[in-house]
Predict the structure.
Amino acid sequence: MKHLAILLCAALATAASAQAAPAPERTSTLRDQRSVNLTVYNGSNALVHDRRRIVLDAGRNAIAWRDVSAKMDPTSAILSALDPGSQVGVIEQNFDYDVLNQASLLRKYVGSEVIVVHPARFAGERPRREWAKVLNVDDGIVLQYRDRVETQLDGYIEFPRVPPSLRDRPTLTVDLQSARRGPQTLDLAYLTDGLSWSANYVATIAADRAHMNLLGFVSLTNDSGTSYSNARLQLVAGNVQTTPPHEMLKTIARVTASQDVFNVNAQQEDLFEYHLYTIPFRTTILDKQTKQLALLSASDVPIRETLELHGSEYYYRATAQGDIGARLPVGIYVSFDNKGEHLGIPLPAGTMRMYQNDSHGLSQFLGASSIPHTPRNDTVRLYLGDAFDVVAHKVQTDFKLHSNCSASSSYAIALVNGKNAPQEVRVIEPIPGDWSISQPSLPYRKSSAHTATWIVTIPADATTTLRYTADVTWCRE
């Protein structure tokens, strides 16, 4: 028992000594990487799963995990051991984001001494070396020699060593405890800024102007400070709440765009109250790169084109307006339903650009519009611009103020069609308060509580005038 107690005490002392001694740092690079998974969210956030095969010692290990995102949120980092029976625990982790360069090296040496090498003044003379303390580098360098202080550097500086906190690239240093020795598969998961994606759609309208072919693309931009080789890529569509990025992670960078285009559709699935799109192949996303990948393809999608003239509430209130406007623009709108055998998948928010082929078979740009996140069976409505040959002239023909809260006003809207075919225009008037329409020259419908809508057909090369009176009460006396 006495010998056993001595051996036990010796073992405990050895373990305590080993635990107290700092473990030698082992560097892990992309050579250790076995897979990487990127889940990119709307905005500029992504979740990275970086899996590597690393040799660990039994006991304490210091791992310099290199080639991580320069804009990672270190507070979100989670390290997991994936091999069965592995017992690995994180003791401490540090994100060294202060990258080694001339400015950062000088900052680290403020208050410390460096060697200043002065150039030779005469032929055959050797450069002169002198120790000096770095006092400040904020607005030019300030050096304190043994007998003077100077603010100019006439030569160059030699540094005794590189401070351990400076790295040539962003590095996450992890201090961990392993129960066994040998190679183990570790997964480092973290959130990062600098990765973003958006949806872009290209629609080609058929000659009958009743159908279109639709292509959807994902534009992915990587400005995170590192590349992701042979990555499994997933995209989340939806407004996911995130906390603001840490101030120390904010950097300014310029993206030099290059483009890769693939023609494989993404696989969609539900994820909580969002939608997840998985690219069905692995792809490499380089730093400072914009990559395009196919999202969907649909043909012969039915569309509806409408011409619309929208009014305003303000001229139904207490002031006479007179001439409201000559050559008022008539908007062009195209709508389609997100359903059917060719569509019927959740459409991420993005920009839709519409084209049509001319008589020579060349596609011509018709207009662009943003679309919100659109679920299945919902309607997409696009504003493309204003009609050239269909315009409106609007005038207030009469106005009677009944009280401080009510009035009657009459209007004449002349719709001019310069085309050689009849045109249909929707006149949409938002009217405030309690209202009614009297003496309309054309039938209307109450399309909402505060909207009156007319559908006016204008013959070819003709003018149709819509007349009506609105009786409006906008407050209670």
In short: Confidence is low (pLDDT under 50) at residues 1-19, 244-264. The two ends are 101 Å apart (CA to CA). Residues 304-338+378-473 form a domain with the Immunoglobulin-like fold (CATH 2.60.40).
